[in-house]
Write a structure and sequence with these properties.
The protein is an alpha+beta fold. It has 19 helices and 22 strands. Helix 4 runs antiparallel to helix 5.
Length: 671
């Protein structure tokens, strides 16, 4: 459909049509970059308007019409633009400045295609598209933004060059080969700028102050848990495949993949709450004496509307500004996490914590006001004649003996959800299993609470990190055993969790590779800050000041023979480079046609036929005795003289034709 829009014939292209085509490509790049961040109405409006504009351009091109037919008058465009800008100002609200502005820009960009376009109009299209790309960066600067930016960068370089031709001669028709050369050469400009841009990115001073954070739309994601969780509320989260965090660390046994976030210690019969989060901000816990194998992690947490920090159970150190721990190995930030967050953590992995001291035991023994008599009878039966550990194992076995099933649907939501779960439906998700065990432990006089976080994760061998999704949201039980300390119990059936449920085969490999790219983008680009700059420069300085390197340099200075050899080698290399440069300069000064003629005469000398200085080409050709060779040499001589004596410029096509004739002469063998 759009082929006539830019092709005059098979060998030529109209510069006006080429400018139109590349302008559509630039606008579409800006549109796609913000596609997921704008409303459906604005997406559809842009697509419809640009399609209509493209159809009008196609009809005008097919009819070869020079007059501005089929375009909307400029005054109407101006009126619509003013109305759009005015409406966008009224739509701007405190928490979100960018989205209304981006949607207004999208409308302005689409209607620019409805008017007759001149040089300034094309420039406006490019500027609006650039602002759309900038808006996409403010909304979400993920890996896809990098690809949009690269495409836009290359397109805009070509567009500016073509637009310059168009501004001088709008009716200009360019040969297809010339057009290809223009595109190739304009691509060199962005390629040359990439190394310099990379250097500037690395050395440009960074600041942790969020200059543009007031513009950013908060990247709110759904957290697995809040300060209070009603039974059944996590089921929707456990069907969400969006990413919550990535943890760079060594690969560990699947049974250790419990990511601690929140400690719930207050249960009212239908929901859990955390009283620890209400502790004063000045509270500071020292976990440095905790026992167990240390596992360091670097975690990249996605934005979500809460303050809790996640790390492998049990985190004893979290390195992050303005983070506090009110106890229970949980950590909170000062403000809710609205942007991607990077932090380091160290966890101590050990089964049981014998050195733990149980403080405020009553806090972990409180029960709801009304306990069903059936539940009291069940606990009495399971705990009869047993110590704490045996009681806990009996309760765990009861919940996991196969008579209970894991389910995310039709969960009990009445005023007595645990009673319905344990004695009626016997089906529920992790919240019901963990809540039942924690309550039953407390009824047996064992201090217990519920821990909220995530379980499992997929290990990416390319990037060396665990990928944890919202569907990995999980709760489990922590109980205090005399002589053992706080121990983890997970009553949820093991079949409820798979540590690697994604597609296998080539698609799985592709998913891992793309996720690794996204990880590196966030790790090395988005999270590149002043601290990383300092670390990089310190490492560089240390490498320069390495004692071994200093010692090597001293030895080199002391070795006179090596210095002499190095000087001689350097001089020889310099002479070689000079000779190559001179030869290159001389060759470049010799016209292509003369060099080709020299190869022609050299080929004949190889055959024992040498041209005398007094001979012209035709006379020289006639002196060749072998008829087949004479005809082939004659064809070359006639073609060469035809161009040379007409004072024509030897074009690329001329030289290619002569080289083909020379190859025929070279391959010729008398029969």
């Amino acid at each position: 459909m759009y082929l006539p829009l830019f092709i005059k014939n098979i060998h030529s292209i109209r510069v006006e049509s080429a400018v139109k085509l590349i302008s559509y490509a630039i606008a579409l790049t800006g549109y796609i970059s913000v596609f997921t961040h704008v409303g459906y109405i604005y997406r559809a409006l842009f697509a419809v308007v640009v399609f209509i504009a493209g159809y009008l351009d196609y009809k005008k091109s097919a009819a070869e019409v020079a007059a501005p037919t089929g375009y909307v008058p400029r005054w109407i465009i101006n009126v619509i633009s003013v109305i759009v800008i005015a409406l966008s100002v009224f739509r701007i609200y405190g928490e979100d400045l960018v989205e209304p502005a981006v949607e207004a820009l999208l409308v302005l960009l689409s209607i620019k295609f409805l008017e007759q376009r001149r040089f300034r109009d094309y420039m406006q299209i490019y500027v609006i598209s650039m602002f759309l790309l900038a808006g996409a960066a403010l909304l979400s600067i993920d890996l896809s933004f990098f690809f949009y930016f690269i495409v836009f960068f290359f397109l805009i370089s070509s567009a500016i060059v073509l637009l310059t031709y168009y501004s001088q001669v709008p009716e200009l028709i360019i040969q297809r080969s010339t057009f290809a050369k223009i595109l190739v050469k304009t691509m060199v400009i962005p390629l040359l700028s990439i190394p310099m841009a990379s250097i500037i990115f690395l050395i440009l001073p960074r600041t942790d102050y969020p200059f543009f954070s007031f513009l950013n739309r908060s990247g709110k994601g759904r957290a697995g848990f809040a300060d209070n969780v009603k039974l059944g509320s996590v089921s929707s989260i456990q069907q969400d495949s969006s990413i919550i965090f990535r943890a760079t660390m060594e690969k560990v046994d699947d049974g250790l993949l419990y990511w601690r976030g929140i400690l719930f210690d207050v249960f009212d019969g239908t929901s859990w709450q955390s009283s620890l989060s209400e502790e004063p901000a000045a509270a500071k816990q020292d976990y440095s004496k905790a026992k167990g194998r240390r596992i360091p992690q670097t975690i990249f947490l996605e934005p979500y509307d809460n303050k809790y920090i996640f790390a492998l159970d049990r985190p004893i150190f979290v390195y992050l500004k303005n983070v506090r721990s009110p106890g229970g190995f949980i950590y909170l930030t000062k403000d809710t996490i609205q942007n991607k967050l990077r932090y380091d953590a160290v966890s101590a992995i050990e089964e049981g914590r014998p050195g733990d001291i149980l403080k405020d035991k009553d806090r972990y023994l409180k029960l709801p006001d009304a306990i069903p008599p059936e539940l009291s009878a069940l606990v009495s039966t399971l705990a009869k004649g047993k110590d704490q550990r045996a009681t806990a194992d009996a309760i765990l076995k009861h919940l996991r003996d196969g008579s209970f099933s894991y389910s995310l649907e039709n969960l009990p939501t009445s005023e007595r959800p645990l009673y319905e779960f344990l004695f009626k439906t016997r089906a529920g998700n992790c919240e019901y299993f963990a809540s039942s065990m924690a309550v039953m432990l407390r009824m047996a006089g064992i201090a217990a609470n519920v821990i909220g976080g995530y379980k499992g994760g997929q290990y990416n061998n390319i990037g060396g990190y665990y990928l944890v999704m919202q569907k990995n949201a999980h709760v489990w039980v922590e109980a205090y055993m005399d002589g053992y300390g706080w121990m983890r119990f997970d009553p949820t059936p093991g079949a409820a969790f798979s540590f690697d449920t994604e597609t296998r085969g080539a698609l799985r490999t592709l998913q891992i590779a793309f996720d690794a790219l996204d990880y590196y983008w966030n790790s090395f680009v988005i999270n590149y800050n002043f601290d990383k700059q300092l670390s990089m420069f310190k490492k560089l300085r240390m490498n320069i000041r390495m004692p071994a390197l200093k010692s090597s340099l001293k030895k080199l200075r002391a070795d006179a023979r090596l210095k002499a050899i190095s000087a001689a080698a350097g001089a020889a290399l310099g002479l070689i480079l000079l000779a190559v440069a001179l030869k290159h300069a001389v060759i470049n000064k010799t016209p292509n046609e003369k060099r080709l003629l020299g190869k022609f005469l050299k080929e004949l000398r190889r055959r024992g036929i040498e041209k005398k200085q007094s001979q012209g080409l035709e006379e020289f050709v006639s002196s060749i005795e072998e008829e087949g060779l004479r005809h082939r040499v004659g064809d070359f001589a006639v073609e060469f003289e035809r161009i040379y004596y007409k004072d024509e410029r030897f074009t690329k096509e001329h030289l290619q034709r002569l080289r083909s004739m020379l190859r025929v002469i070279h391959r010729y063998r008398p029969s």
